[in-house]
Amino acid sequence: MSPHGSVNPPAPPGALTPQRQIEHEIATLFEEYRTLREEVTQRVASRMQMIGFAGVVSALLAVSKKFTFGAPTVYVAVLVLLLAVLWLRGFNRAIQRIGRHLRTLEARINALAAQAWGTPEALLTWETGTQNARMQVRGVPGQVGRLGGWYVP
Questions:
Q1: Which positions, given as ranges, span the membrane (predicted)?
Q2: What is the C-alpha separation between 28 and 24, in angstroms, rounded?
């Protein structure tokens, strides 16, 4: 009965129950989570290819003539490496932005799962646990990681 004393009409055929709505939302969010994890994997692979390419190009330029600081190839090699480092930082920061969204999805999926099924343990923990471990890196490695975009608070 509704608060006004009338009988609630039956749910239309095919309507989702509250439980099924939550399960549907979990499935949708999990698909987004899976897709973003794949994107992170692809970006990491691209990052590694770019690092290798920049290293090879710089090495070839540096040794293409006599190794002197007067040779322009040495400066071009350093410039290629500098551009690669800046590009790498951009890659890392983009991966961290995706990671921030993944942590939000983990929290939402875990909360919905607890609501729907009463699961006491979190279903998804990878990104949250990894970021927590990253943020505990101290000293020079931590500073280099933050400067390079690997560890973004």
A1: 69-88
A2: 6
Is residue 133 a contact partner of residue 103, using CB atoms and an 8 Å limit? no
pLDDT in tens, 128-142: 888 888 888 888 887
Q: What angle do CA 91, 88, 142 make, to 5 degrees?
A: 95
In a domain, 61, yes or no: yes
| pLDDT tens-place string over residues 29-77 | 999 999 999 999 999 898 888 888 888 887 777 777 665 667 677 777 7
**12 in a domain, yes or no?**
no
Range of the domain at 93: 18-147
* Amino acid (one-letter) located at 23: E
Instruction: Yes or no: say if 40 and 105 are a contact pair by the CB < 8 Å rule.
Output: no
Q: Give which of 133, 130, 96, 128 is closest to 110, Cα–Cα.
A: 128
pLDDT of residue 10: 56
* Eight-class DSSP state of 79: H
Residue type, position 68, single letter: T
Each residue of 130-147: b (16+ CB within 10 Å) or e? ebeebeeeeeeeeeebee
Structural domain count of the chain: 1
